[in-house]
């Protein structure tokens, strides 16, 4: 699997640092609020599980699965579908959306709007990665791990056609992997 990676963009050390920093900030900002962390499946699962080990206050979490990309497509369509909805009511809750990466911004823009209609008390975003150069919808990312250039990345939860999620770092795939599909 490692041999499919052109180069490492975010190392395991950088990931650990980002999680510590973000966890400490969230601990401070959400003291006494019992926030609900909403993990956007499947890409953000590994990130959330590492992040919350550094969140040292009472909190809860739930999962939601949405899709804007189909299969091997690497370009967002702006059409966000709910595949699996939350089990938890958002009414009056301080919600923290946990995302793997913000790219065009369509997914998070849509989710913020949806969560506001469900009467959340507040909705904030923590995104592990940010590709600011690709933004189409302006979305304020409250907590950001690492900004990256406009490249398709895999690993640390993120996939290409459902593969590479289990890599412990974030990398760029070799061009030939796409070419030979
Ligand atoms: P957006 O709606 O364009 O902001 O896309 C956000 C979603 O697209 C993320 O939650 C990821 O699931 C997926 N995505 C965007 N860029 C990448 C990437 O480089 N690698 C893997 N998934 C990505
Ligand atoms: Mg995602």
Distance between the ends: 15 Å
Question: Helix fraction?
Answer: 10-25%
Count helical runs: 4
Mean pLDDT: 93
Describe the structure.
- The protein is of the alpha/beta class and 181 residues long.
- It has 4 helices and 9 strands.
- The chain has helices at 12-29, 45-51, 106-117, 175-179, and strands at residues 5-10, 36-41, 60-67, 81-84, 94-102, 122-130, 143-147, 153-154, 170-173.
- The strands form 2 sheets. A 6-stranded mixed beta sheet has the order 4-3-2-5-6-7. The protein has a 3-stranded antiparallel beta sheet with strand order 1-9-8.
- The longest helix has 18 residues, at 12-29.
- It starts with a strand and ends with a helix.
- The chain binds inosinic acid (IMP) and magnesium ion.
- The site of inosinic acid (IMP) has 17 residues, from β5 and α3.
Give a quick set of tags describing it:
alpha/beta, binds magnesium ion, globular, 3-stranded antiparallel beta sheet, 6-stranded mixed beta sheet, 181 residues, binds inosinic acid
